């Protein structure tokens, strides 16, 4: 079946697809057309990775738009949204407009009303529904990519409820769900009232096998000799063998899946010994250039490790990398410049990076709940294996698991090679999931009574799957009680019926996309602090950070607490000692000794508060951390808001300390501690810092909104939240807030300008250009952009000479990096 023979698509699309190389539809695509996907029929397509699911979605969306409708494409990961948008933009020449919605949860997204096709994550769609985005009602087609992720305990329930809401809002909605091959695709189709296309077909043959001894034993009974030299490891032998086996003049690349970030990094380092010697001079030159680009992304050790592996043709890929790192690696791998990528399973999910050979090196992963190493799901391993084989480039794809003894080989065949993927199971009937969705369901008017709620929840996969109807009702009742107790929902008697209605604050919480428990935690903390503030009695001492006001002799003297990790880095991270007086909140937890304002809400206190909420993934406490953070806790206890657990409540106390560790990371960031030092101190990657900072910024923004909406939190507290948020947003101390707010001025440039005497946005408009240029290390384009963004009338740097003393002052005041580590978080927007 040729694309140009399809009716119902915008004129020219069929021909354009053929020009792209889609001369004939793949069999599952043809089956989808037969099932009515271009005629508005709902469909579940459960077919293997790389078998052309996206085109099925495109056919559905394009035909929907051609009929005058509007389509939504739901992606599982934020990182995939822009990739998909770019992919769909090739249809703009046929009059189909595309938009992506990724930003903050609470932005209103009204401009999307003008787009024909919208790409968004399920969280974003959920938020848009809660905020009443008007175009939601206009949708005629929704695509859910990787719908098998409804099985995911963390994010699955949101996808499940979002699909239920969309279908409830638009009863005629065409729902197209794309799934990996799972054990129960028919159940998903049943839930979505959709036709089912299920197939094992792949455009390129996949051979799965297990390497043991000196050969790969494939599922079709064939063997490929891959001897392992003495002292060599299996992975290295397999990667080398793929590179030495030429097809169309080139060796094959490999993708190695391992179970942790650290393993990905060390495996890549080791494999440079395999890839490096096989590179051509030209490849070496191009890789050196790429390594330079990677180093420019950030000035961390991870960045450096990645760049040096890439110089030798190998790379690692995991969620701790910055997204710029990830896309540079993915592109170079697709261009066959990088020969091997060692990845954690995140890469298997959705990123289109095919390789000749996939090596699943680790098939077990540490799982705390399981109490040890747990085998990966079949579905996960199959998705990794599905990345093997590049159509048109490789004769077939090879996916290889590794065994060091015959028993393990047999086990791997049984467990993964011959096995079918597990069935997908809804994770909705759990309190954390329902807490947020029940409030949103009531707040957005989908239900106004207990019965209405249960009826709405009946549209979920959970209801399709469960035999135990009582369970969902029981959890729902418990959750409604929680929401009532915390003031998010009111129960009202209306005649004989008990009605549920969201309170004002309940509406706000739902719109802000907060877990109600997060909202309750921050409100409790803030109210508690404010009550203490107002109260001039005993309790005030608990928050009085002023030296000498602590009433408890056991407390360390305030105003002198030094950071445990002060390492004498020339003003870095030890702002506590600065004397800036003036009665202002100094942002570092110190208040003036002689003011009578008493209690003070500090950034650390607020960071700790938001880090305690279920919306923040806390850092783990590693061995030895407990002592470190206990010590910090006792020193800074007075700054922390809300009721502290006792040390004997083991789990809660650990949680409290883990939040403190996370809060300290944020505090370091907001005190201009170097990124590299932070990755070392907290044992995280630059991407993790970015993630924590983004989440904290969002939570603090939400906290600010909540705090201004409720009784019991005063204006000073709201201001404290705003300042803590801005400092984390820009990654700077208080005195740089104004400068760092200018576009193109990140935390480092702001510090350099400040040290050179340019202290504010207004100064930028007036300052000697030579000074600005000197502080910005003589980079004219940058200096011009900065001046322009600060509103300077004539930003041109033509003929301006860099002021040496400014440049020297800037160097003394900064951490001495080479200046282009600017792609740090402060510049991330
Ligand atoms: P999936 O979403 O199933 O993992 P994709 O939709 O990304 O797979 O498709 C994998 C590749 O196959 C893409 O590069 C796509 O352009 C190509 N492709 C899809 N359908 C066809 C077809 N009918 N003919 C040729 N190539 C196709």
Based on Cα principal axes, name the global outline: globular
Number of helices: 33
User: What compounds sit in this structure?
Assistant: adenosine-5'-diphosphate
Strands of the widest sheet, in order across it, are: 10-9-8-17-14-11-13-12
Poorly predicted runs of 5 or more residues = 535-598, 815-829
Strand content: 5-15%
The N- to C-terminal Cα distance equals: 45 Å
Q: Could you state the oligomeric state of the chains shown?
A: single chain
The helical percent reads 40-55%
Mean pLDDT: 84
Largest sheet: 8 strands, mixed
List the helices and strands and how they pair.
Layout lengths: L12 H8 L6 H8 L8 E4 L6 H14 L4 E5 L2 H11 L9 E4 L15 E5 H9 L10 E4 L11 H14 L4 E6 L5 H7 L3 E4 L7 E7 L2 E4 L4 E3 L8 H11 L9 E4 L3 H15 L5 H17 L3 H11 L2 E4 L5 H12 L5 E4 L13 E4 L3 E4 L4 E4 L2 H8 L11 E6 L3 H12 L13 H13 L6 H8 L3 H5 L3 H17 L3 E6 L2 E6 L1 H9 L3 H19 L5 H4 L59 H9 L13 H12 L13 H20 L5 H8 L3 H24 L5 H16 L6 H4 L6 H9 L5 H6 L2 H7 L4 H10 L14 H10 L16
Helix pairs in contact: 2-3, 5-6, 8-9, 9-11, 10-11, 10-12, 15-18, 15-19, 16-18, 19-26, 22-24, 22-26, 22-27, 23-24, 24-26, 26-27, 29-33, 31-33
Task: Offer a quick outline of the entry.
This protein is of the alpha/beta class and 829 residues long. The protein is built from 33 helices and 19 strands.
Walk me through what this model shows.
With 829 residues, the chain is an alpha/beta fold. It has 33 helices and 19 strands. The strands form four sheets. It has an eight-stranded mixed β-sheet with strand order 10-9-8-17-14-11-13-12, sandwiched between helices. Strands 3-4-2-5-6-1-7 form a seven-stranded parallel β-sheet, with helices on both faces. Helix 26 (686-709) runs antiparallel to helix 27 and helix 29 (747-755) crosses helix 33 (804-813). It is globular, with a radius of gyration of 29 Å. The two termini are 45 Å apart. Bound molecules: adenosine-5'-diphosphate. Adenosine-5'-diphosphate (ADP) is lined by residues 21-22, 25-26, 29, 49-55, 352, 391.
């Amino acid at each position: 079946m040729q694309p140009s023979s399809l009716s119902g698509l915008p004129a020219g699309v069929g021909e354009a697809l053929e020009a792209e190389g889609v001369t004939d539809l793949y069999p599952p695509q043809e089956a989808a057309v037969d099932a009515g996907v271009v005629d508005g029929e709902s469909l579940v397509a459960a077919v293997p990775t790389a078998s052309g699911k996206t085109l099925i979605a495109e056919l559905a969306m394009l035909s929907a738009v051609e009929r005058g409708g509007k389509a939504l494409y739901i992606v599982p990961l934020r990182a995939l949204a822009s990739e998909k948008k770019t992919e769909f933009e090739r249809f703009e020449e046929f009059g189909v407009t595309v938009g992506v919605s990724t930003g903050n949860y609470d932005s209103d997204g009204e401009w999307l009303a003008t787009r024909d096709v919208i790409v968004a994550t399920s969280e974003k769609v959920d938020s848009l529904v809660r905020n009443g985005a008007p175009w939601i009602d206009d949708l005629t087609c929704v695509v859910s990519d990787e719908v098998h992720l409804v099985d995911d305990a963390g994010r699955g329930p949101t996808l499940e409820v979002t699909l239920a809401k969309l279908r409830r809002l638009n009863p005629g909605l065409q729902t197209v769900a794309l799934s990996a091959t799972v054990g129960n695709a028919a159940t998903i189709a049943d839930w979505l009232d959709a036709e089912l296309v299920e197939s094992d077909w792949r455009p390129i043959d996949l051979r799965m096998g297990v390497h043991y001894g000196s050969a790969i034993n494939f599922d079709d009974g064939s063997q490929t000799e891959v001897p392992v030299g003495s002292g060599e490891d299996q992975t290295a032998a397999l990667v080398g063998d793929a590179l030495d086996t030429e097809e169309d003049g080139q060796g094959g690349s490999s993708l190695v899946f391992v179970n942790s970030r650290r393993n990905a990094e060390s495996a890549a380092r080791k494999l440079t010994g395999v890839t490096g010697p096989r590179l051509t001079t030209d490849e070496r030159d191009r890789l050196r250039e790429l390594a330079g680009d990677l180093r420019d992304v950030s000035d961390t050790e991870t960045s450096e490790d990645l760049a040096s592996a890439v110089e030798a043709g190998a790379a690692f890929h995991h969620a701790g990398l910055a997204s710029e790192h990830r896309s540079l690696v993915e592109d170079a791998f697709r261009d066959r410049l990088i020969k091997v990528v060692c990845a954690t399973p995140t890469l298997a999910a959705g990123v289109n990076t095919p390789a000749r050979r996939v090596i699943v090196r680790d098939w077990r992963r540490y799982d705390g709940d399981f109490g040890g190493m747990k085998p990966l799901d079949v579905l996960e391993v199959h998705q990794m294996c599905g990345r093997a084989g590049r159509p048109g480039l490789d004769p077939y794809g090879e996916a290889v698991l590794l065994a060091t003894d015959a028993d393990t080989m047999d086990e791997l065949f049984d467990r993964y090679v011959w096995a079918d993927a597990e069935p997908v199971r809804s994770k909705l009937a759990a309190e954390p999931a329902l807490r947020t969705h029940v409030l949103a369901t009531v707040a957005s008017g989908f239900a106004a009574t207990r019965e209405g709620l249960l009826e709405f929840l009946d549209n979920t996969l959970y209801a399709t799957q469960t035999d135990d109807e009582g369970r969902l009702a029981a959890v729902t009742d418990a959750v409604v009680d929680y929401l009532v107790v915390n003031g998010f929902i009111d129960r009202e008697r209306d005649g004989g019926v008990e009605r549920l209605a969201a309170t004002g604050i309940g509406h706000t919480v739902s719109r802000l996309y907060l877990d109600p428990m997060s909202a309750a935690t921050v409100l409790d903390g803030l109210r508690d602090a404010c009550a203490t503030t107002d109260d001039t009695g005993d309790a005030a001492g608990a928050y009085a950070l002023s030296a000498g006001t602590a009433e408890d002799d056991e407390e360390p003297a305030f105003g002198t607490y030094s950071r445990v990790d002060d390492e004498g880095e020339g003003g870095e991270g030890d702002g506590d000692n600065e004397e800036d007086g003036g009665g202002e909140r100094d942002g570092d937890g110190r208040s003036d000794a002689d003011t009578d304002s008493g209690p003070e809400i500090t950034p650390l206190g607020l960071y700790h508060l938001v880090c305690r909420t279920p919306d923040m993934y806390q850092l783990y406490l590693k061995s030895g951390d407990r002592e470190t953070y206990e010590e910090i806790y006792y020193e800074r206890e007075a700054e922390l808001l809300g009721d502290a657990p006792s040390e004997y409540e083991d789990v809660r106390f650990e949680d409290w300390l883990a939040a403190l560790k996370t809060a300290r990371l944020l505090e370091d960031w907001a005190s201009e501690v170097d990124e590299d030092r932070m990755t070392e101190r907290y044992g995280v990657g630059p991407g993790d810092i970015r993630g924590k900072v983004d989440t904290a910024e969002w939570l603090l923004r939400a906290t600010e909104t909540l705090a201004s909406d409720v009784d019991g939190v005063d204006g000073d507290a709201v201001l404290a939240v705003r300042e803590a948020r801005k400092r984390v947003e820009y990654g700077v101390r208080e005195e740089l807030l104004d400068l760092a707010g200018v576009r193109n001025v990140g935390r480092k440039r702001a510090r350099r300008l400040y040290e050179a005497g340019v202290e504010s946005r207004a100064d930028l408009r007036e300052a000697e250009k030579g000074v600005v240029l000197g502080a910005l290390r003589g980079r004219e384009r940058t200096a011009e952009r900065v001046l322009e963004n600060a509103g300077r009338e004539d930003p041109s740097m033509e003929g301006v000479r860099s002021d040496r003393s400014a440049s020297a002052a800037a160097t003394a005041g900064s951490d001495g990096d080479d200046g282009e580590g600017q792609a740090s978080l402060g510049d991330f927007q």
